[in-house]
Structures are given as C-alpha cells and as structure tokens.
Amino acid sequence: MNPEVPVTREDVLLFLNRNPVCHLATVEDGHPRVRSMFMYRADESGLIFHTGTNKALAKQVQTGAPVEVCFHNSDVQVRVSGVAEVLDDMELKEEIAFTRPFIQPWIERYGFELLLVFRVRQCRAAVWTVADNFNPTTYQEL
Q1: Residue 117 near residue 92, CB atoms below 8 Å
Q2: Quick check: 5 and 76 in contact, CB under 8 A?
Q3: Could you tell me the residue ranges of all domains in the chain?
Q4: pLDDT tens digits for range 12-66
Q5: 42 CA to centre of own chain
Q6: 0.90 exceeded by the pTM?
Q7: Domain spanning 9-128, CATH architecture
Q8: For residue 115, which of 105, 98, 103 has the smallest C-alpha distance?
Q9: In Å, what is the CA distance from 125 to each residue of 13, 22, 78, 94?
C-alpha cells in the first residue's frame, strides 16, 4: 500500500488539510457550477470554506443543496460530497481574516458582513488512484 494514499478517516482529513486547493461543485437553477477554492480547514465537523456574500456561490450554498469537493495531488484524488450550511460565527470569521491576510483589506473596507463562512457537513469521501481506476468506487463517512 502506498503511504501517500489516505485510508482512514484521519488520513483523509490530513490529506485534505495538506492539499487545500480544490474544486467545489454546486447547483444553480438546475445547472452545475464548479470553481477552484482554497479550503480553510477540514476536521470532524466538516470542511470549512469562505466566500464573499456578493458572490453567486454564497447564494448557492445557502440553499442547503448537496455539494461535492474534489481535492488532489499528483497521485491521489479525494472527492467529498456533503451538504453546505452557513455558519454565523464571528470568532471563526475573525480567525479566518487573521490567518488569511489577503482578506484583511476587504474586511477593512466592507466589514465582516462581506465574509460568508460555510461548512460542508455529512461528508462522504471517495479516494481514487490510478491503481484503483477499474475498481468500484467506495465511500467513507467523514
């Protein structure tokens, strides 16, 4: 077994946190929408993301519709499906703004009302490698 391939729940969460640049798929008016994202963190409660309240993504995640996120490195792909929920947590917003300096000028100009934080919860992960290409997809609850 390749040690880089996540097997356990803890391995998957570690992989996601080590590879936070990902692609998030949502649905808008029955049409798929996908975009690159920079996940804030993954833990037992789900995957934490942020976006601007003025973005179409903000409206899409507020519907509570299912989403899917795809993470990868050069050898492994992990798809995580779940449901998005908006978090009204000022401490988390402040933490995100503090640890991501590129957000600070926006907050200074528009205030924290601009920052929408959401979590993908009820997560199921599917791990894929080239070696597994022809195997049936298996899912793991996160």
Answers
A1: yes
A2: yes
A3: 9-128
A4: 999 999 999 999 999 999 999 999 999 999 999 999 999 999 999 999 999 988 9
A5: 8
A6: yes
A7: Roll (2.30)
A8: 103
A9: 10, 14, 6, 29
